[in-house]
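Fold Annotation — chain and its backbone
Next Lines — sequence and tokenised fold

***
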Amino acid sequence: MNQTEQFDRKKTIKLLRSRNIAPTRPRVDIAAILFSKPQHVSADDLIELIRKNNIQVSRATVYNTLSAFVDGGLLKKLFISPTVLIYDSNTENHQHILNEETGEITDLHDIDSESLKELAALQLQKMDIPLKITDIQIFFKAKSTNSILQ
């Protein structure tokens, strides 16, 4: 292990402790993968990443760690559908666009989310539909997300 890896590990331990999460070896290893870059992962995606990094942890540990990280404010849950849950390592206020064709999720930072929520609320109010908006997600189908976002 080089000095950079040691520094990152110490930084990760400090982050977990700051959120009242016990920095066990599996949690620190999982955090190192999750917080290496902004990303959207399912529990199964994460388990695959963990295995690719030769880390030995049980599925239960992965699910319990994800739950602890959500409770500690380190991850956000994205309910893509009633059966698909994705974890977002970017907890800043932002919206998402999902390409249903490719499964790619892209963060949208330059949208005034409050105005978007107000517009949605007004439209649904006109239809007499009760509403509680906590997050806006945009779904579409295309071969590639790149051309749409440029």
User: Anything to note?
Assistant: The radius of gyration is 18 Å.
